[in-house]
Amino acid sequence: MASRTTQILEAAVRVIARHGVRGLRVEELAAEAGVSTGLIYYHFKDRAGVLRRTLQFISDRAGHYTTVRDPDAAPLTPREELEQSLLLELQDTGEVRENSSAWGELRASAVFDPLLREELASATSLWVREVTAMLTRVNPAAPASAPAAAAERLTALVEGLSMRWLSGGIPVDRARTLMLEAVEAEIAMLQRR
Amino acid sequence: MASRTTQILEAAVRVIARHGVRGLRVEELAAEAGVSTGLIYYHFKDRAGVLRRTLQFISDRAGHYTTVRDPDAAPLTPREELEQSLLLELQDTGEVRENSSAWGELRASAVFDPLLREELASATSLWVREVTAMLTRVNPAAPASAPAAAAERLTALVEGLSMRWLSGGIPVDRARTLMLEAVEAEIAMLQRR
DNA sequence: GTCTATAACGGGATAGAC
DNA sequence: GTCTATCCCGTTATAGAC
Fold first, then answer.
1. Could you tell me the fold of the domain covering A63-191?
2. Which of A20, A130, A193, B31 has the fewest CB atoms in 10 Å of its CB?
3. CATH number belonging to domain B4-62
4. Chain B residues 23-42, Cβ below 7 A from strand D
5. CA distances (Å), origin B64, targets A184, B58, B67, B89
6. Which residues of chain B have pLDDT under 50?
7. What CATH number does domain A4-61 carry, 3.20.20.70, 1.10.10.60, 2.40.30.10, 3.90.1150.10?
8. B71-125 per-position pLDDT tens digit
9. Distance (Å, whole) CA A182 – CA A21
10. CB B118: neighbour CB atoms within 10 A?
11. Domains of chain B, residue spans
12. Tens of pLDDT along A100-148?
């Protein structure tokens, strides 16, 4: 059972996903969480405290980067696993959209808030390491530094495409197509070495 | 001699680069530009107008910090031209950093602000078309749709890497290296078709 | 710990003089 | 075109009851 603060933080993620960091109103957050504004201040001191804790919460939760899979399903090839993992962030479902929007806000906020950077950097580097491992499984023969660089590019591309999608620049299907082709290009490059 | 509105727009880019779109206060903008708040409203109608025009200003200007080149040097190959153009946004100089920060902020804001989307979409599509043209020059034989997709990926990657750089995730040199390798991968892919 | 009621404030926007 | 002064609203934040 979620604690009171967790309940509020989860509500905060939803509100941020809807209106952004700048659009978070304490009163709306209270309504979303089903509590009073007074309670928000009781638990978080002030609005900045809510933001700080929420953005940490987002990067800690990093639900982003883990796939829960049915253990009985047919095993994925390394390449399928990689593709699936990257496409996870490019789906037009409520939950993914929420997560991606919030993550984008976190990244954007970190540009102006040194406190968030550390948190963000470690979450990102975890993600990059995971993708690096998948790429290594796709092509174990590639020189050591190549999969790491490819992973940095592919994850950065996910973020770039995600922003374009969320800001209405491209439909989500286009983003997915572009992503898959990028995987192809990167794997081809690993092969050629 | 810069016009009054240009002077204000330049100040707006600086303020946004420092504090983000979220942190832009009309009063601070006025101070930065050395004018009164009243004048801001006279020229831009409201705060949203400032943002809209600033976005246009940034995208117009981005084309312009084009490379100071030695006139005696050999002319650039199409590929070099492409590389230069993409690397333009990944330079740790005051002006570029300012532009990139502001651009990232506007992109992030557009997720929650439909008014900015239109503007952003047309600026982006212009950029994508330019990169597409360069890619076509690199490999005129490639099928028509391939350079366009590659251009979308490369520009999205610039944005993704730029965010990582600005949020302290990677140093600018790393971003540049990753970018160049991506160009290589994309060109190789065009070749293979 | 949690709520209701309200005080205090920030900042967007306007009016009117020059 | 530009400035000063000010209004006004939405929001943050606090006080005090339960």
1. Tetracycline Repressor; domain 2 (1.10.357)
2. A193
3. 1.10.10.60
4. 34-39, 42
5. 34, 10, 9, 11
6. none
7. 1.10.10.60
8. 888 889 999 999 999 999 999 999 999 999 999 999 999 999 998 999 899 999 9
9. 31
10. 13
11. 4-62, 78-191
12. 999 999 999 999 988 889 889 999 999 999 999 999 999 999 988 999 9
Residue A148 distance to chain B (closest CA, Å): 10
Is the minimum CB–CB distance between B171 and chain A shorter than 8 Å? Answer: no
CA A112 / C1′ D6 distance in Å:
33
What's residue B60's pLDDT? 87
Question: Which residues are within 7 Å of strand C by their Cβ atom?
Answer: A 4, 34-39, 42-43; B 24-27, 37-38, 41, 46-48
Cβ-based contacts of B112 with chain A (< 8 Å): 18-20, 22-23
Distance separating alpha carbons of residues B13 and B24, to the nearest angstrom:
10
- Alpha helices per DSSP H over A34-93: 37-44, 47-61, 78-87
pLDDT digits (tens, 9 = 90+) for A63-72: 655 566 778 8
CB A175 within 8 A of CB A161: yes
C-alpha to C-alpha distances, B159 to B127, B153, B175, nearest whole angstrom:
12, 10, 11
pLDDT of B192 reads 83
Nearest CA in chain B to A111: B167
Class (C level, CATH) for B78-191: mainly alpha
Residues of A whose CB is below 8 A from B124: 164, 169
Q: pTM here? A: 0.95
B107 inside 8 A of chain A by CB: yes
